[in-house]
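Worked example

This section walks through a single chain of length 97. The input is the sequence exactly as stored; nothing has been trimmed or padded.
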Amino acid sequence: MEDVLVEQVFKDLQSRGFKILERLGDRIFVAEKKDKYLFYVMVEGVEVTVQTLLSVINMGETLSMPAVLALVSNDGTVTYYFVRKIRLPRNVYAEAV
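Given that input, the structure is written out below as tokens.
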């Protein structure tokens, strides 16, 4: 099942002019159009841990490429989301509690 979803994302990206460069794992791969991107395939309704998402973002940072979530919906539509870490300022009010 997972391979079918990844292949569906591959086909969608290729129709958008991307070239698939390398598969790095079951759901993670590198594709290129003008720049290189790290893609992680997710399925609607299937939970993913924050640690998994953070690992994908960290891998993208290590490889110097943006991380993109490829979300496959129940009807087969693929939607792409750029993800990155943000640093929030310290909340002085929360520390006082």
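What to look for: The first strand starts at residue 19 and ends at 23.
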